[in-house]
Specification:
This protein is mostly beta strands and about 325 residues long. It contains 3 helices and 22 strands.
Length: about 325
């Protein structure tokens, strides 16, 4: 009995001396058999991607050709508000890679072509071949015919040539008179003597009306009054004055409508720069100057208006027959 206890003591003593080895063995046993059947290392899933590629082609009847430089957009619910985009190469090819499996929409919006949009599904590790056919927009042209507001009235027997105040202001008139603008109209010719001949008639066969008032000089056929350019609204020339409104004229009639005032106060100053006088390349004072001032406005609002224009005219006329006289004696 005593030897049995001694043997057990010796066995536990030997086991205590080998405790590191025993601890390692127990730990390995628990890992292999005591912790369950789960594997030691879990397999990490690898994400699989797909792609969409193709070619951008112009869809023309009996002719298709690739189109380079086209921007292609790709959208999907997986992308949210973000859109992928790429540009076709010289052969019109494009490619979207690294796409997660799912639904996608391919779209192209190019000027001159119909908008292209196509939905497709990308599978795992699959490539979708999608050629984009762009159809040109058909060209159309519309012609609108409207009534001509300046068409001559059917009850009028003559049609007048019209010169507006804008033409009088912009035309290069050497003497700053409305008569200088009349040769701009067809049928009006200035003769060698400086007089105006309308439709081949002599000046004394024509007449001039200012606001329906006859101001024709019966001897020369020229106007008996001078009007500043700013006072003239329109000038009309009737080459065939056969209407009952115009009598005592066998040639043509020039009618002048003067400018009226308005509810707005307006003024204009023009012609203040003098025209120099040159002789043999030298400056000899002032050749001409015609300063003008015009003012207009209301006397009684919406009832009575006025317009007034004033002009000062200074013009030197050279006489070619007096070439032998001294310069101070020519004027």
């Amino acid at each position: 009995m005593r030897f049995s206890s001694l043997n057990r003591l010796i066995s536990w003593r030997a086991l205590y001396d080998r405790r590191p080895a025993v601890i390692c063995a127990l730990t390995l046993f628990m890992i292999l058999s005591g912790t369950g059947s789960e594997p030691l290392a879990r397999e990490i899933p690898v994400q699989q991607h797909g792609s969409i590629k193709g070619q951008v082609v112009v869809d023309i009847t009996d002719q298709r050709r690739p189109l380079a430089g086209v921007v292609i957009f790709l959208s999907s619910e997986r992308l949210g508000d973000r859109k992928l985009q790429t540009v076709s190469d010289d052969e019109g090819r494009y490619n979207f890679t690294g796409l997660t499996a799912g639904d996608y929409a391919v779209s192209v919006d190019l000027q001159g072509f119909k908008k292209y949009e196509h939905r497709t599904i990308v599978q795992i590790e699959a490539t979708v071949e999608l050629n984009i056919l762009l159809q040109p927009i058909a060209l159309s042209e519309t012609v609108t015919v409207t009534e001509d507001k300046t068409d001559a009235g059917k009850t009028e027997t003559t049609t007048a040539g019209v010169i507006t105040s804008t033409t009088l202001r912009d035309a290069p008139l050497i003497d700053q008179k409305f008569q200088d603008a009349l040769p701009l109209l067809p049928g009006v010719v200035r003769g060698p003597d400086g007089t105006l001949n309308i439709k081949g008639t002599r000046p004394n066969q024509s007449g001039i009306l200012v606001s329906s008032l006859n101001v024709t000089d019966p001897v020369t056929g020229s106007p008996a009054i001078e009007l500043p350019l700013e006072a003239v609204e329109t000038v009309q020339v009737y080459s065939n004055p056969y209407s009952a409104d115009y009598g005592k004229f066998t040639g043509a009639v020039t009618t002048i409508e003067t400018r009226a005032g308005s509810n707005d106060w307006r003024y204009l100053v023009s012609g203040v720069l003098p025209r120099p006088r040159w002789r043999d390349g030298k400056l000899f004072g002032i050749g001409a100057v015609t300063p003008r001032i015009a003012i207009g406005g209301p006397i009684s609002k919406n009832k009575l208006f006025f317009f007034q224009s004033l002009e000062y005219r200074f013009v030197r006329t050279n006489v070619p027959s007096l070439e032998n006289l001294e310069e101070r004696q020519r004027d």
